[in-house]
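[job 4471] stage=fold_predict status=RUNNING
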Amino acid sequence: MRLRTQKFKFLSFSGIASLILLSILTSCESKSKDEKTPEMTHVAAEEQIIENNEARKIKNYMEGNELNGSVFVSVANTPIFKGGFGYADFEKRTKNTVKTTFPIASLTKMVVAASFLQMKEKGLLNLNDPIGKYIIGFPNGQNIKLIHLLTNTSGITSPSWSGISVIPKDIVNEIKKSPIIFQAGANWNYQDANYILLSYILEKVSGISLHEYIKKNIFSIAEMKSSGFITRKNTFPYAAKGYFKVQNHFEPIGKLNIHLLYGAGDMYSTVEDINKFDTALMECRFFSKKSLDEMMVPRSKSHYGLGIYIYNDYLFSRGTLGGWNAVHVYFKDKTNVVLLLNARSRKMDILKNAKEIHQLIKK
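[job 4471] inference complete, writing structure tokens
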């Protein structure tokens, strides 16, 4: 995992100019071209919204850029396009659709962050609690707070994962042995270990498993009926196999290391369900407007808030795992773009793809 650090100072709620521009984003809404090969032949989008100018633009963009996966685009909670492109399984020629399930990698973190804001509102914890309160003997545990884990500003690092136990408690003990590279709150360093610790703490505080908590308190509220978890007992619950592009063909990805994904990337979902999560989040169905605002404060020069990146004109989460690539972007004009792809190349920039789709429908 590449190390990324940036110096910064924590920003106050009143001092964030970008919050003014983001007020529309966080106001609770009322409900309402490499050469083609035979393997790259793309099929027409399935289950798409009634053909219109915007839909045609999106369809042409997905096919023209040879994006293999599923897309969902909505404006003010009204779907304007949804469809699948290419194959969920190249060998079996199983097509991608809007119902195809994909690993969503680090998009899992926004769900864990939302769970902590819920528990805070229930009085089960405080985001300024030191992690030493929950993990006895953790180095610098009285100075590292839950908020530092949520914002990737804790200073902790990830251990060498080779040969590590699959039991969460053992994983946490390995993280305890890893060096701390800066004082909590001094810098920003994106590490999955932060969210692994949070998931372990969530289970201790809630008294139930992380997966059970999310099912009861996130999936049920947002009506995410096609989402779930990759586990040791079910290592392939999703439909879309992962591939990596090598020259002009695709190599299938091997098995995932399940224990490394715990709370940091172990969810699978569909484009429809991610859109449902975004809708529930912006309608404040998970928690209050005050907590939503807290989630959306960028805590460093990285623009990272609580499980999500915040810019003046848009919010987003992005995840990469093996051959899978995932992004969802919520723009200030209330356009939501969700892209889940299962064929990845080194040149791919899925956030750029989502932005370009947004620009297309605004022309």
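[job 4471] summary: The CA atoms of residues 30 and 283 lie 6 Å apart.
[job 4471] exit 0
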